[in-house]
Write a structure and sequence with these properties.
The structure is a single chain. This protein is an alpha+beta fold. The protein has a domain of 99 residues. It contains 6 helices and 4 strands; from the N terminus they run H-H-H-H-H-E-E-E-E-H. Strands 1-2-3-4 form a 4-stranded antiparallel beta sheet. Strand 1 and strand 2 form a beta hairpin. The radius of gyration is 30 Å and the shape is elongated.
Length: 163
């Protein structure tokens, strides 16, 4: 009895008249209503999918690049505090030994570090960002680095451009 009650539709709200407008309204949604719902869902998907993909790329940068970059920034800051200068290329190579640089390459320009995403394989997690650069210039005061000025296409993409 309980199974029958669950399967049977409650038609107490629908009038018993056949071919009446009220009877048709008890049948379900019209095609127009369903098309409007599908259009709204399509618009929401068209807006949210690119934002989600961008969010995933930014989180991958933070996962795969930031830890190694922080190790390097700490080593550069230590070198600057002890030698009063930015490290040269050979000293930078020594600093980079303890950092995980699987997904990026770090170079040295005049008083700034140049980070380049190095992820050419199409199956790589950062392949869409391959070749993007970010320039890191230290803000110094006395014998210490207070912070870093970030610029370049990668900094713009991540929304962390400080210049």
């Amino acid at each position: 009895m309980l199974g029958l009650a669950l399967r049977r539709k409650d038609k107490s709200n629908c009038p018993k008249l056949k071919k009446s407008r009220l009877v048709r309204s008890c049948r379900g949604f019209t095609l127009l209503e369903l098309m409007i719902v599908v259009a709204i869902v399509g618009i929401l998907a068209a807006v949210s999918v690119p934002l989600y993909i961008s969010y995933i790329q930014k989180s991958r940068i933070k996962t795969y690049v930031y830890p190694g970059l922080h190790v390097i920034q700490t080593g550069v800051a230590f070198h600057y505090a002890t030698a009063s200068t930015m490290p040269d290329a050979s000293r930078l190579s020594e600093i980079m030994i303890s950092a995980n640089t699987t997904y990026f390459h770090l170079g040295l320009s005049v008083n700034e570090l140049v980070l380049t995403i190095d992820s050419p394989a199409s199956t790589s997690k950062l392949s869409k960002l391959d070749g993007m650069k970010m320039y890191l210039r230290p803000e110094t005061q006395g014998l210490r680095i207070n912070g870093w000025l970030l610029r370049g296409p990668l900094a713009d993409y991540l929304g962390i451009n400080t210049e």
